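User: My instructor asked us to take a sequence, write out its structure as tokens, and then describe one feature of it. I'm not sure where to start. Here is the sequence I was given:
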Amino acid sequence: MANKIDFNAWAHTAAEWSAHYLESVAERPVRAQTKPGDISAQIQPAPPMEAESMQAVFDDFKNIIPDGMTHWQHPRFFAYFPSNAAPAAIIAEQLAAAMSAQCMLWQTSPAATELEISMVDWLRQAVGLPKAFSGVFQDTASSATLCAVLNMRERTLNWRGNEEGLSGHPPMRIYASKRTHSSIDKALWVAGLGQQNLVKIDTDERYALNIDELQQAIETDRANGFLPAGIIACVGGTSMGASDNIRAVCQLAQKENLFTHVDAAWAGSAMICPEYRDLWDGIDAADSIVLNPHKWLGAPMECSAHFVKDANSLKRTLSIQPEYLRTHDQSSIENFSEWSIQLGRRFRALKVWFLFRAYGLNGLQEMIRNHVRWSQTLAEQLRATPQFEIVTEPVLSLFTFRCTKGDPANIDNLNQQLVNKINDDGRIYLTQTDHDGKKVIRFMTGQFDMQQSDIDIAYETIVEIASQL
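Assistant: Let's start with the prediction itself. The structure tokens for your sequence are:
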């Protein structure tokens, strides 16, 4: 028989540890300073036969795990896109975990379903989308994009693909820019369409998908017997913030009767600030949009908002209803498992509710505006510093730069060394990317609790370590 756990006491202990962690996380190195195998060497090689005390378990947690983590809530986490966890939303996650509901159907958790409908609509209003859009909280943007690709596939095959498979049909084509995220490639793998049927279009001088080349690719594919199915456009791409001309893409898609999905996983959160909405001008004409509140708004992982203009089309693609999942005599309800790949679903809407109410749109807008301003400030500081150059200008809070000292033929190696030494130093965390054949350093702000002083530390760290190379 397992030990009886004093849940009240240990829940308080965990809450106290969590509060101290968040208060002191800035004192830790941002990236884990461990070597491969350091953590696994401290874990028992087999599960225990007898129950251990919670004290022993919690002590091992404190002694082993935190030092082996990269601290995504660190105010100087400037790598990738953030995975924010606002304190109020963390509390909501704790409550959701306590209830541990499986929210696949309305009847399995009516409050979870109805709150999700409301929170998706709050978010729709916050980012300025018209009432024509409804939506669902998927786990990540990768899942939302896969759902969109499956929707494209079924729409193109008149909803026969799930039943008949893909053999016997001409290959389908989906189009995206060469600067889009790798999750799009993977979506085509999983959907059975194949990598070679993702047609990647060159971008123009503004890093946007070339519309003329896109038009030509569609016409050529049709002439060669392919089935054009959809276009995936990008707003705020991961590498350097590339954004397509959404209005032009949607106009072409409507002309060609193609489905349009917009990947705004990171940048979409910034649309709560009306002044940034030019970045996705024309979004009203899209069929499907994904943005991640768990990136820049402060909702803990996982929480990806998938907006669709035609919910029935998505449900027709993904819904399966064995008798044991049917809710009889309730035709007006929504079962969100019919909008998703997974049957099982977490109670994601609760943290969005807490987030909006605890900080308000004004507070969230102020946070994002600060991040954008602080990132632009650092870009200008680096631009004015000898032996540094800005490679791509800030898109919201993201830009790329590189150090230009030394032999021009060795600049790529130099910048990789700079990234490595900065991350080993521990004060800040950056990552590199490739931009048009150049190794560049990617910088973005977005951590929920960061302050302008963290930008000062970033500048000092970058310049100091570069001077040592």
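For the description part of your assignment, you could build on this observation: The chain has 14 helices and eleven strands. Try explaining in your own words what that tells you about the chain.
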